[in-house]
Amino acid sequence: MTEEKIEKKIEKVEDAKVEKTEEAKKPERPDPVTGKRRGKFGGKRKPFQRITREEIVAAWEPITELGKKVKAGQIKDIAEILDNNLKILEDGIVESLLVLESDLISIGQSKGKFGGGKRRAWRQTQRKTKEGNVPTFSALAVVGDKNGHVGIGYGKSKETLPSRDKAVRKAKLNIFSITRGDGSFDSVGGGDSSIPFKVEGKAGSVRVVFMPAPPGTGLVVADELKKVLKLAGIKDVYSKTFGKKRTTFNLIKAAIDALKKTNLEVNRK
After folding, report:
1. FRET pair for 145, CA 20 to 30 Å: which of 8, 112, 173, 201?
2. Residue where a domain stops, chosen among 97, 112, 130
3. Residue 33 — very low, low, confident or very high, per pLDDT cuts 50/70/90?
4. How many domains does the chain have?
5. Half-sphere exposure of 260 (CA within 13 A, CB side)
6. Shortest CA distance to 100 belongs to which of 37, 172, 162, 186?
7. Is pLDDT above 80 for 29?
């Protein structure tokens, strides 16, 4: 090997070392969610941070007339929309007027020899095609502000996370208000920890009956119904259920049907 070839090889090695040092001096890559810097591959990374409600509302660009009024500040209360039965077509409307929390209802079950049968948030179905099996995931979400507003939504997608996002978005569009009471059957105390009177809801073969309960009773309901009632702002209630209660989807729909009837004056008689 000639001296020229040896010198060229040495130059290549030195150039490679310089490139590595320059890459090490480069700033860390920005986080795609928060915009903050984080470590490179192989290093210690900073955990992702969720986008705050204020950032979502600030980035929201309304399309409908109702959304533009909310963005401009002409409508400052969700009651103006719900009392007039106005159609909500943008989730940003609800997001800007209410401080919401969300949760997923366990409508599916896991598969497996030893862990099979356990409840999980995603329900998986499969379609047979010539190319093979095509799985689909669906989710049922509930949102509420724990102050008399609640809504449910159903989402379906080929992956789990998109189905969850669809369900949460639809739940915001289906938001409605409920009337709360003090736990007595005539609601004379002026409290808001329970419901004002006995209500009943139905979906499929499932019937759900909610009855007022005094403060301190707690939620005497099924575990999945507790998620709905907690986000609705109800702390004390008795319940009865009839039909095939293992069908969680119908159980939740029956509960929502019952909660909507708390706004009807005819039920007070």
Report:
1. 201
2. 97
3. very low
4. 2
5. 14
6. 172
7. no
